Amino acid sequence: MKNISKLLLGLSILIQVGCSYLEPEALSLTTRLDVITNFSNLTRLRNNMFTSLPEGYNSNGNSWRASASDEAEDVNETENIQDFNTGNWNIYSNPDDSWSRNYQGIRKTFDFTEGTDTITFIEYKIPDPVTYVARVSNMKMWRAEAQFLRAFYYFELLKRYGGVPIVDHKISIFKETEYLNTVKRNSFNECVNYISRLCDSAAMSLPLKLADVANADWGRPTVGAALALKARTMTYAASDLFNRPANNNPLVGYTDNNRVARWRAAALANKAVLDLMPQAPYSFQSTYPALFQLKTLRSNEVIFEKRYPASNTWEVLNYPLGYQTGRSGTCPTQNFVDAHEMRTGIPFDWKNPAHAADPYANRDPRLLMNVIVNNSVWKGTNVQLWEGGLNGKPLFRASKTGYYLKKYVDETLNLATGQTSAKQWIYFRLSENYLNYAEAMNEAFGPNVPDTLKVTALQAINAVRTRVGVAMPAIAAVVTKDELRAKIRNERMVELAFEDHRFWDVRRWLIGDNTLGAMIKGVKITRETNGTFKYVPIDLEKRVFSEKMYLYPIPQSEIVKSNGNIIQNPGWN
Questions:
Q1: Residues 360, 332: contact at Cβ < 8 Å?
Q2: Across the 573 residues of the chain, what is the mean pLDDT of every consecutive 10-residue run?
Q3: CA 467 to chain centre
Q4: Three-state DSSP class for residue 301
Q5: What kind and span of H or E run contains 162?
């Protein structure tokens, strides 16, 4: 308990990278006795570590990063997310700048670990051994949570900026000048290794599964969460963006030629998650739409999530125009819709007259689970997305793409009466690890080679496609490595739609020119006099993307504060 004074000092004078000063937490850890008698203070300090986790809904103003990828287009042209699409972002203004938020999160983990590193609860050992054992166990787990969250926040920085300064302790204000004179970005490799070590260490003390209690523990990390974070990190680290053959800048990627080894490491990391399935237990959700409408339930497919209080804000922003107070919001693109195969497993093709005449029939079932299409039933009525229809152009705020969002949106709510429902956001789920594993194995060994891991790339992607609730046909074993790569990338676009993957995937694959800088497409829908519909794909918006945009610019304010010791990312000077 002798470090309570150190905790108070740290809360008051901590500085973070860039020397952004923060207000001290409103905690009442004033005496050693207070900690003993008021355990809730420690739980508050623990809970505070989670508050910097990224938002799932409305992650960018009233919009999503999906609307800055080829997944979606926001109907509101004034949303900040549109700056990505017009190229109107720079070292001074970034619609998704999260540098400070993530370093604040890192700071909060040190508030806990450095503020509790000598707490032993020895006072309970003799008079109350049951409480003693419980609190010692809790403290060990909570300190592991701090390691996991620290790794999470560093990964959020890594995928945006490349290598960043690793701060492994709180920095006193009295050491500010010394720190600013020495601070620098760590290499990309050093950051990956640091995140990996934190995940390994956290996994040793986190629970295998959450206690079977009410939802009090939902949103807490487990062994699976730590391993899933490591697996995602290793998958990103092996990807094209960070393995450019001619790269000689260690801040933005690797400079060696060990990429196959990195892909195998990524496969091993993802296999470690899959190997937890019997014990955790993890399994596929049998009904795909229900996975995103759990409300007061949990799914064994979920590995790590964030729970939200009851609300209808997301529905107000994204209900189709014309349904109660719906404002349209995030609208799927034709690019995204076209990624859904026919039910037989062949690609959809507008040049095929049968496909074009009835474009939503006999498609991958996830299409109608993710997207509201013309003439489909929503809240008991047919959606009129044709031009002149009750929910279509040219009405103000009608979908520009010809589609409305279905995934995540709670259709059962009555917005007119203010009805709400609970929400959850999934950070990690089982399907991603299967697809990560498939990608890593294919890149390292090809479609059908099991290596020592026994499960092939082809088997992993087919596990996702053929599961109950989706039941798409398996990909044949005759595909080449390049063909399977294309299949895996398309499967990720469909399976992980609007889960904040596409925006990052196309960057790590270095296909921004064909996706982030692509022509965004919609569909023109005409209702014929006989009541049938004619569908014609149309060009909506040519977006702006350049090479430097694969990584974010480090905020210029942070470079200035560091006296130029922090080096800007290429192309952003």
A1: no
A2: 32 35 34 57 90 94 96 97 97 96 95 84 84 88 97 98 93 76 94 98 95 74 98 98 97 96 98 95 94 90 95 96 94 98 98 98 98 98 98 96 98 96 96 98 95 94 97 95 98 98 98 97 97 97 98 96 95 94
A3: 23
A4: coil
A5: none
Tell me how many domains the chain contains: 2
Are 31 and 180 in a shared domain?
Answer: yes
* Same-domain pairing of 201 and 322: no
Q: Are residues 331 and 185 in the same domain?
A: no
Residue 481 resides in a domain: no
Q: Domain check: are 188 and 333 in the same one?
A: no
Identify the three-state secondary structure at position 332.
strand
Residue 47 lies inside a defined structural domain of this protein: yes
CATH number of the domain that residue 39 is part of: 1.25.40.890
Whether residues 326 and 189 fall in one domain: no
- What's at 59, amino acid-wise? S
Q: Which residues contact 96 (CB under 8 A, 6 or more apart)?
A: 60, 65, 84, 160, 552
The answer to whether the beta carbons of residues 158 and 164 sit under 8 Å apart is: yes
432 within domain boundaries: no
Burial profile 489-507: b = 16 or more Cβ within 10 angstroms, e = fewer: bebbbbbbbbbbbbbbbbb
Domain boundary among 357, 389, 419: 419
**Residue 303 φ then ψ, to 5°:** -100, -40
Question: What CA–CA distance (Å, rounded) separates 69 from 516?
Answer: 5
End-to-end alpha carbon distance in the chain: 48
Q: Which of 419, 442, 468 is the last residue of a domain?
A: 419
Q: Torsion-angle region of residue 278: left (phi > 0), alpha (psi -120 to 50) or beta?
A: alpha
- Give CA–CA dist 462/389, Å, rounded: 40
- How far apart CA 426 and CA 94 sit, in angstroms, is 25
Q: Whole domain around residue 564: which residue ranges?
A: 1-56+98-206+556-573
426 within some domain: no
CA-closest candidate to residue 474, choices 487, 486, 484, 465: 465
Q: Letter for the amino acid at 171?
A: I
Report the DSSP beta bridge partners of residue 332: 72
Rg (CA), the chain: 25
Instruction: Say how far apart CA 73 and CA 95 lie, in whole Å.
Output: 16
Q: Give Cα 259 distance to the centre of its chain.
A: 24
